[in-house]
Amino acid sequence: MLDRRQFLKLGGATAFATLFGGCDKVQSRLIPFVIPPENYTLGEALWYASVCGQCPAGCGVVVRVSEGRAKKVEGNPLHPVNRGKLCARGQAALQALYHPERLSRPMKLSGARGSGSYTPVSWEEALSLLMGPLKKVKAEAPGSLLMLTEPMRGHAGLVAGRFMKAFGSKHRVAWDPFGPDAMLAANAAVYGVRDLPEHDLANARYLLSFSGDFLETGISPVHYAREYGRMRGDRETIRGKFVHFGPRLSMTAAAADLFLPCAPGTEGIVALGIAHVMVRDRLTAASSAAGRLSDDLGAYSPEEVEKKTGVRARDIAAAAEEFSRNQPGLAIAGTGAATGPDGAFHCAAVALLNVLAGNVGKPGGVSFPNRAQAFAKYGAEAALLAPSPESGYAGMRAALEKMRGGAFRMAILSGATNPAFTLPPPLKFNEALSKVPFVVAFTSFLDETTSLADLVLPVPTGLEAWGDDLAPVGHAGAVTLCQPVVEPFHDTRSMPDVLIATAKELGGEPAKALPWRSFKECLDKAYGGPGGEMEKALQRGGFFGESSSARPAARTGNAALQKAAERPIDGDPKAFPLALHLYPSITLYDGRGANLPWLQEMPDPISTAVWRNWVEVNPKTAAGLGLAEGDGVTVMSPSGKITAHVAFNPGIAPDVAAMPLGQGHTRYGKYANGRGENPITLLPARETYALQATRVALAKTKLSTTLARTAHPEGQWKVKNMM
Amino acid sequence: MARKRITAALALPVVSLALLFSADIPFLAGSALAETVPQPIAFSHKIHVTDYKLNCRFCHSSTNKSQYANIPSVEKCMMCHRSIATDKPEVKKVAQYWNEKKPIPWNKVIDVPNHVYFPHKKMVNAGIPCLTCHPGMDQAGTAVQTLEFGMGMCMECHRKKKVTIDCWKCHY
Asked: Are A29 and B108 a contacting pair at CB < 8 A?
């Protein structure tokens, strides 16, 4: 037992120790640099322009650097895509830079493949481990090398493309779960241009969006958000009207004047209903010119469309009438439409509305600038630098078949798109990759895919590397330059640098194809180098002189309607009463942001949930199932089942359940692992990458976790008032 | 009795806390007024400034560009000491830090009190000589603080020069 005296002594000593311990932390040392960073002034920040690599939108950024450390990322005001704005994902690039789990050294596999146990090795050893099998494959069967990356743009794409060609393999696959495969196919069919269009929102008077969550995700959310703001508020007397069709009340839908819910994967049918009315009633010049209703369009009377989609016939007729009367108007298809069972059909149906409105190539409409003109000097190779991942899902599936057949002896992986996480399990990516004898991964983090590699090579993050970029939309030919804003923190080498070094070592054709000493030299040669134009461009963030020659006018008249291939979604409606709608998370995107705590703790704008995923259901549907807000449920599809928490969303159709993508990681570090389950495991394998492809049933389950939300759902929605 | 005991038990930590906070710890921070703070290298300001007539800003180059006066990098020292006075024992120490690519861990001598913003660049660019606030530095060995930076000292000079004495100029 303590007596009083001892107690007092102890108490005093504790207080003293606490305080004096704190006093030690007063700054008493002044540690100067050994060699200061370039242009360094103590206490004064420098801003470096570069490009954001957190999603494929390609926004320009400026990064505040003081004492040689990056402190803040902001949008580059000069950049045509984002004009000084930046989203939360872009801001979180700092956390990727300073991430405690970033790979700092090359690592070789030390256990069984997929065990995730690695031993650090030096770069010399890593490169010799890479060169051994590579030389053997080159000598014996060069065609058996696979390169599986995210879509590469700019000169990184040129280096990778040339490397593979000179090596003698044509198996270069680019994978991005939200890649524009469907959009490109639709645009080729309707507009005659296999490219992404510019939507001139700022000058439009009317906007029809079909599951186009362009304010939160989509192709270029910051660009579209800014243009949307201009459409709403930049003109003296006109405030553009916005009508949104989609399966759930998303943040974008919540911004609309009118939100009309439709079943997942039926967006194109709604669009054809509108087209039907436009042609039938000859509402615009172009729709009058289309003549009588074609047989294909005839089947989409508003009444028929109502049966299939749940959107009322009179709403469809009203939307058609308003859209036609308020020109210029725009129709935009988004990720929800493009990832339907037949995404290309849905996107083509929406594009048809722009053609019928006669908006192609006009202000407030759709245009196709020649964005890749800066790379025209590369002739046939120009496609390697442009942002069009032609291989996409079809290429991925073909590659998986070949992997299973043992066609590949070596695979080079790179990028954040993580196919082991983003592909439906029936495609068996892991099993297919295990058939490839040697796998090398270029990455900053171990994730579900890269942890299957035999050799892991650490790369610098976007804030530490040289590069260039061509954004997919939002400009008319601007090239963004990417420069290291800080000295690389770790012993990293970029993939193009390693490929160039490897090509030199291989000699022969590869060495000739990549004649540079480093990737920086490749860029210097391409852009005039230091002292020339490049130096000025680096200060501004790139070459933004937009003197784009417009493309030859896109085909606008008489667009043949694609034969409607409405593919039913999986699951018997009796056993699985709810259609599942999966959408990219505004914070985690396809899951790549899940290892960044800033993004994990950022509340979803609709559910306000953090750090975990959820299933959104209509409160009425939930009441029928005996589910309360926050309850645990098992979500069952014919292909799989997962558990999640219920979050009410009164703005979701009663026969729909919606889940955000991005959570459910198992090997993506301590911040990402074990936060809910991956909804992609509910999906079947289809001919296209279909996220809206299955029906589900919900059953109440007891979960040990809870769903943390920043706003009380009752207060937010007043559920009892809506029942 | 029990209550008394608890009061007594709480008293000592609480009193020691109060003492420490109310005093703002001047006796702990150890005012280095005219005292020599031990340094890893016996750098002489006198040799550099008085004997060889180097401008202060040659080494403390951020004083006209930044809030802070920087300590020169090891690289800056070696710009001259690669060839000058290389046989001197203190210069050899600098060379050793340079060869090992380690920074020199100087101890802080001069500080302004808390809750005040003091931008060096404003003073330097207004033409205030460095020795106004750092008198004796040109004759010193390693750095010394000979003036106590109290608010009175600032105010006196600001009044004399008829520049702002607005609270918010320095305390924000």
From this structure: yes
* Rounded Cα gap, residues A127 and A136, in angstroms: 14
- Residue among A27, A29, A43 whose CB faces B67 most closely: A43
Residue A100, preceding bond cis, omega within 30 degrees? no
Q: How many CB atoms lie within 10 A of CB B58?
A: 13
CA distance B72 to chain A (A): 6
CA-based nearest residue to B102, from B144, B47, B40, B38: B40
* Closest by Cβ to A41, choosing from B9, B12, B65: B65
ipTM for this model = 0.75
Contact A19 B105 (CB under 8 A): no
Rounded (10°) CA dihedral A558, A559, A562, A566: -100
Strands of the sheet containing A329-333, edge to edge, are: A258-261, A241-246, A206-210, A329-333
Contact B73/A36, CB-based, under 8 Å? yes
Of B59, B64, B62, nearest in space to B137 by CA: B59
CA distance A229 to A220: 14
For an interface test with B, give the residue of A38, A42, A66 to mutate (most B CBs within 10 A).
A42
Beta bridge partners of A412: A147, A440
A39 to chain B: nearest residue by CA? B62
What is d(CA A692, CA A679) in angstroms, rounded to the nearest whole number?
11
Measured distance CA(A406)–CA(A151) in Å, rounded:
24
pLDDT digits (tens, 9 = 90+) for A522-543: 999 999 877 778 888 999 999 9
Span B19-60, pLDDT tens digits: 444 444 433 334 445 567 899 999 999 999 999 999 999 999
Cβ–Cβ contact A628 with B under 8 A: no
CB nearest B9 (choices: A8, A20, A26): A8
Of B10, B20, B101, the CB nearest to A34: B101
pTM: 0.85
| Start-to-end C-alpha separation, chain B | 49
